[in-house]
Records
---
Amino acid sequence: MPLTFFAERYDSAKSSISEDLTILKRTFQARGTGLLETIPGAAGGTRFLPYILKEEANQVVETLINQMSSNTRYLPGGYVYMSDLLGNPATLRQIGRIFATQYLNQDVDAVMTIATKGVPIAQSVADFLNVPFVIVRHDTEITEGSTVNVNYVSGSSTRIEKMSLSKRSLKPDSNVLIVDDYMRGGGTIGGMMSMVDEFDANLIGVGVVAESTAPGGRAVKDYTSLMRVDAENDTVISKPGNYLEKIFN
Amino acid sequence: MPLTFFAERYDSAKSSISEDLTILKRTFQARGTGLLETIPGAAGGTRFLPYILKEEANQVVETLINQMSSNTRYLPGGYVYMSDLLGNPATLRQIGRIFATQYLNQDVDAVMTIATKGVPIAQSVADFLNVPFVIVRHDTEITEGSTVNVNYVSGSSTRIEKMSLSKRSLKPDSNVLIVDDYMRGGGTIGGMMSMVDEFDANLIGVGVVAESTAPGGRAVKDYTSLMRVDAENDTVISKPGNYLEKIFN
């Protein structure tokens, strides 16, 4: 946002706007709302980079864990119902802020996820990073045009599955951040990593809201999770994921 | 948000906070950013209701129309590629603000949409209205738990299709706003209307980003659209929808 925008809107000199921004900057930083960056020069201006402090992130995750640790969420086969959490705009905003904080200083060009429940996570993270998001699908839909298709082994079931992404959705050499709601065996995330390769793009990182504690070799080695969820015998127990060491280290 | 929150945070008297809010209120209203409502009484406080003015909404729709009216978007069968628009957080925010403006004074409890491409629209509208959103699906996924299923006739193809929604996602008597990205025959929207009935909920309204101009009796009579899109013979022509008469009347 160039300074002239504010100068015109508020009918003030650029120097007074600049002073006001300094005050805003200090306030945002002190409250952990975000970073207000001033880019100097004729084409310069300001850029707001939202972030979250460790203490607030801990509170967010603690609230998530309390909401998740309910046996009424248990579903047959060791699955967990969390559509209500992923349909709550306030919760999504907080999750988006946490992942955006991790990649604040990295050059992310696009956020990638897989339909359906990953979409709200991707949208929220993309909103805070101010970059587009792209949706990989299990089916090929006519409204996507030509697609690139990838086969992958579903980690939890060792079935071969297919995923597809519209050819026009990603430019080569894009820096891609993968996010999803839940990781079990990691097969789906692994499939998205192959997809990033197929587009000659670069993987920047992987973030999941919840990872399952179910045993089994996991295809994905490096990722950030907010929660670890143990769902067995009609019981759901949730604990903090590895986000502290990954983000606030 | 109760006034005591601000009073504590900024270490000020409630009366000074109240004065500051009056200034904010006037600024927001003058700029068309939104409405700051003060709720009196001990449990009172403030509530921010974002809206958009007619002039800005017109600009948003004009930009959308310019982006849509490109023949490179044409897909076989008279479909239109718009995944890039629906993956752009800034565009989604503007679309969300427009639909939120329409229902500013109505009691909406939830926003409903169908996977996959309706999800970003629903999330953005729900974010501005500060209510949850629920996602109807074409498939039944294990992570949704028990579902309610509805059969409907796909308007454009006269095929019988099925959609499902998790039983726990909507409370009876909820006021539901349906949104989607694209309406052709209206069969999918019609299916979601049956779904609202099945949950003993109330339909508040229907909003779509784009409606097709393709002929054929449409099942849905009352809806708001931002654009009308004509896609035939490798050509995509886009015009304003009925939003002016529906929202800014």
---
Amino acid sequence: MAYRETSRVRERKQATRTNILTNALALLNEVGFGGLQMATLAQRCSVATGTLYRYFPSKEDLCTAVFEHATEIEIAQVQQHLEAPETSADGLPAADRIADALTTFAKRALRAPVTAWALIAEPVEPAVVAARLRYRERYAGLFAQAIQQGIRDKTLPPQDSALSSRALVGAIAEALIGPLAHKSEFDPNQAITNSVRFCLQAITASSYTDSDTKG
Amino acid sequence: MAYRETSRVRERKQATRTNILTNALALLNEVGFGGLQMATLAQRCSVATGTLYRYFPSKEDLCTAVFEHATEIEIAQVQQHLEAPETSADGLPAADRIADALTTFAKRALRAPVTAWALIAEPVEPAVVAARLRYRERYAGLFAQAIQQGIRDKTLPPQDSALSSRALVGAIAEALIGPLAHKSEFDPNQAITNSVRFCLQAITASSYTDSDTKG
């Protein structure tokens, strides 16, 4: 009779996987992707290194899974602030929800700078760069929805939401690279305020007109 | 007597290196980093594959050098538009120079989309990601200078130029990822206009105020 995985086996595997990712995320917050060692992680998880490799065949696989795990947590935070309350008619205007979401993103990043650097900027293997691209699409999709709502209810000026939302994601991520990489040169609260202001001005301001941009 | 490299040997080596990088850049524009093959490149350069490896010991080394070579060309274009003419008192205001520089960057990207994707977004080896970080600092430094000039001559509102300049670089690069990755969904000229407008509004608009960003 062929081996069939029982639901109990599946649950146990899932629990081990979750344990590994939780410990990996804690380790990431200390040493970044560059310092993540399979042997150290195995020790933290109280599993054999061989077990770790059964779940994640390579360090690149592990890093990708850790990236996705960590970013899902950040995405959920952003999404919570962006989503319009469906039960109430007097929700915050789209611009304010976007400001809240960006502020939350920036605050969380500067509170966990090693993890934020790892997720946003650290030189990583191609599979993790590919995951960064996918998740930036996810972020942009969420911001695009909020921008569209703002345009519909006329609290935001007309704009290409697909383009503005990507630019927002790029702007907030890159703005934080300064404070993350050169901590001493930036006051964290000022950095958060200024990054969010940059983004909000970009999507709320009346049109900048310059004939050169039409060329 | 120990071998000493004569200036003629050095010149010949430099010429070979330049020949390799020029051909690599042409190849990059066809296939991106993912499609760059040492054997194909050697053939294009009319050198043995072994020779190629003497100049670039690994594909990662080659890709990093190609990235730097290509980005130096783009940086020079941006710099040319950003620099204030020193011989004339009636130069363009900083905001217009920044708009010109961003427009040039975006136009050149959409005109060479495979190269632009490779430079901006393609999943690449860690050494190339590290080069991306370094060059984004270079771009940001150039924009920061222009923003500071704008603040000094009061054509731009006061702002943290180190932060705004990074956000600009992030915004323009990420905005172009949409048109580069999903070409059919974007009109290139509209994408250029809208990306530049986003950036200009961010640095020129009067302050967006929202108590939540101060929290």
